[in-house]
Specification:
Blueprint: E1 3-8, H1 12-23, E2 28-31, E3 43-46, E4 49-52, E5 59-61, H2 64-73, E6 84-86, E7 92-94, H3 99-106, H4 111-131, H5 140-147, H6 150-165, H7 175-178, E8 195-197, H8 203-210, E9 215-217, H9 226-229, E10 233-238, H10 242-245, E11 255-265, E12 275-278, E13 287-290, E14 307-316, E15 325-326, H11 330-345, E16 349-351, H12 363-376
Parallel strand pairs: 1-2, 1-10, 2-9, 6-12, 10-16
Antiparallel strand pairs: 3-4, 5-8, 6-7, 11-14, 11-15, 12-13, 13-14
Helix pairs in contact: 1-12, 4-5
This protein binds uridine-5'-diphosphate.
């Protein structure tokens, strides 16, 4: 059979593309080299708990159209991400940086007191930048120091970020930390978005819903038979690594990957929260996820006497590993731009997603991107 679209990769971009194209009467074939669909959203059920096999995914958006679309595939629950961080000083702090964090860090009780403290904490870094005639933070460290100051940078940011990215904060782009809100209210919601949640029954339901009625071939690597796959459809939607698509001709892009040490524990409630970050450089993992808290709330967590946790170890990506995060530093960005120039000239290939666009995407913007594609490209 000849298809309108061959979609390489059954992750969120590919599955959403397949869904919206199929709704418009297009014939789609999705191939994926893994043995399951869903990309890094994939969950495995262990002890009755949906375990996020490739790291925690929390859907959040202010885009009503995106929210209604995903909820039309599967209803979402009311999970609100409110991680806590265990700092090098041994204490626990609420995230994101808000009045609770400031109270825990400095004992300040009002927004006015917190603001005065923050100003004092930011002062040195701001003065240093001024003295050097710099108007914008040049790296993540400067961004953090001018945004939130010294104590929080040292206790909650530096160690975590350097473990997560395997690079010094002075060598990382400032935008990474701009994701984190700073608030003068007692609000532990990690995101500022209007809508947030987890699909009821887990992410596999979302992916299965998106791929309903679509031809899917798993365990199928595009690169093992590229010439064949290139003839099977009018257009290719490519969601894999863009450098691999072009045979690494401008060099390899770098990625970070995460290894998970997942354990089943004989206790109902291990850490009382889905996400606990370990911000000290001395703890080898970045965070511990207790998966049941994504879908079970309050004392209902005690209904299951067991729990499943995953420690996350962040490492540099090498061949054979799953790439997770693009490393958008200057070197990689320059390499990517060269690939992008080739990609922009393609008539019959559409590139999308974290790996093909070499971009630190959240889930909702991926969906918005696909929706926009169909808005601008008509039927
Ligand atoms: N971050 C930090 N301390 C924390 C949590 C996050 O310094 O306790 C920084 C870190 O640089 C990280 C970035 O904020 O890479 C974004 O974190 P987020 O949790 O949003 O990333 P993701 O969940 O996508 O890994």
């Amino acid at each position: 059979m000849h298809y309108d679209y061959l979609i390489v990769g059954a992750g969120l971009f590919g599955a959403t593309f397949a869904n919206l194209a199929t709704k418009r009467g297009k014939r789609c074939l999705v191939i994926d080299k893994r043995s399951h669909s869903g990309g890094n959203l994939y969950c495995e059920e262990i002890e009755g708990i949906n375990v996020h096999k490739y790291g925690a995914h929390i859907f959040h958006t202010s885009d009503k159209e995106v929210w209604e679309y995903v909820n039309s595939i599967v209803p979402f629950n009311r999970y609100t991400n409110s991680p806590v961080a265990q700092a090098p000083n041994g204490k626990l702090y609420n995230l994101p940086f808000n009045m609770n964090t400031f109270y825990q860090m400095w004992g300040v009780k009002t927004p006015e007191e917190a603001l005065a403290k923050l100003e004092e904490q930011r002062k040195d870094a701001l003065e240093k930048m001024q003295a050097e005639g710099v108007s914008e933070p040049r790296n993540l460290e400067e961004q953090a120091l001018t945004l939130i100051g010294k104590d929080i940078y040292e206790q909650l940011i530096k160690g975590y970020t350097e473990k997560q990215w395997g690079r010094k904060c002075t060598d990382l782009p400032s935008f990474i930390i701009k994701r984190l809100p700073v608030r003068l209210t007692f609000d532990n919601n990690y995101f500022n978005d209007l809508f947030q949640g987890i699909p009821i029954g887990g992410y596999n339901r979302l992916i299965e819903g998106l791929l309903k009625g679509v031809d899917v071939k798993l365990n199928t690597d595009f690169f093992n038979n590229r010439t064949y796959w290139e003839t099977i459809a009018d257009k290719i939607v490519f969601t894999g690594k863009i450098d691999e698509f072009y045979d690494y001709r401008f060099g390899k892009l770098e990625y970070r990957t995460v290894n998970f040490d997942t354990k089943i524990l004989d206790e109902a409630n291990h850490q009382g929260n889905a996400v606990v970050n370990y911000t000290s450089a001395d703890v080898p993992y970045t965070r511990v996820i207790e998966h049941k808290h994504f879908e079970t709330f309050g004392n209902a967590v005690y209904d299951n006497p067991k729990t499943v946790i995953s420690e996350e170890y962040s490492t540099e990506w090498h061949d054979g590993m799953e790439p997770f995060y693009p490393v958008n530093d200057d070197r990689n960005q320059k390499v990517y731009e060269q690939y992008k120039e080739l990609a922009d000239k393609e008539q019959n290939v559409i590139f999308g997603g974290r790996l093909a666009e070499y971009k630190y995407y959240d889930m909702a913007p991926i969906i918005a991107k696909v929706q926009n594609f169909f808005k601008t490209n008509g039927k």
